[in-house]
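Following the same procedure, sequence and fold were stored together, as reproduced here:

>
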Amino acid sequence: MTPAVIHLATEAAERRSAEVTDWGARIAWVIGLLVLIAFVYWLMRQGWKWRGALQSDLPELPAAPGGLPEHRLALTGRYHGSTTAGQWLDRIVAHGLGVRSRVELTLTDAGLDVVRPGATDFFVPAAQLRGARLDKGIAGKVLTEGGLLVVTWAHGDKLIDSGFRSDRAAEHAAWVEALNLMNQSITTEGAER
């Protein structure tokens, strides 16, 4: 073999070999991506805190009084969040109202007891209940039409919509009827005085 043939064979072999991975550049890209992801999460957390600071005028949530009367209805399911009434995307995060969780709802003559394992429990006195309806979405959670029980209630000078989904969606209609009847009887009693 002549030196020219050996040189051509060597060049052909070099052209067919795979490029060597530049590990330094690859590691730099991965670290850069992780820093970007951490920065985005930090911004989301700051936005959540900022929203909570804007809603700091909302009074503390009432706790359930001792010795509640016998319950009318009970439900287990999910709490999907609370928003300003009529504005299904304006999430309320103050006092833990923005935290999704499991829920146990109990409706009594005294009001609505909301027990949330792992989150802040609260109680809505019967006089503060304004009504209920079936809806399809609230603050980042969209379901099928009528798949969400939305309870409207007054807290301080603000009307709030809270979204619940029962483990058994067939219960929603009974809750809407009971809450709206309860609201009508309270409104009628107030008008008579």
